């Protein structure tokens, strides 16, 4: 079910929710991110899982995320390294996700 539909100068911003997953899409038939609502810290796409591989070798104290997207990396990092200081820099999509309560603000 489509729960948000808007656009900015870069194109459409759509959020879908089927009760199990929430999906952020920037183009028809495309998934930018997917969050399983029951376990938002478990990454659903291989590309985001690969982005977490450095945690095998270090435990960072601070991370800056450029491009928040659906907040999947932020949720996973916050769960995996609870003491981490996260800074996210993004476009207006962040305001939509905060409204939908997909992004922690603490």
From TrEMBL:
Domain of life: Bacteria
Protein name, per record: Spermidine synthase
Origin organism lineage: Bacteria, Pseudomonadati, Pseudomonadota, Gammaproteobacteria, Oceanospirillales
């Amino acid at each position: 079910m489509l729960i948000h539909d808007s656009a900015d100068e870069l194109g459409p911003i759509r959020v879908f929710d089927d009760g199990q997953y929430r999906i952020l899409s920037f183009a028809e038939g495309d998934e930018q991110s997917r969050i399983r609502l029951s376990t938002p810290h478990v990454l659903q796409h291989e590309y985001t899982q690969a982005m977490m591989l450095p945690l095998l070798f270090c435990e960072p104290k601070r991370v800056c995320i450029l491009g928040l997207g659906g907040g999947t990396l932020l949720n996973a990092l916050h769960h995996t390294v609870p003491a981490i200081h996260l800074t996210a820099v993004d476009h207006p999509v962040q305001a939509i996700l905060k409204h939908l309560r997909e992004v922690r603000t603490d």
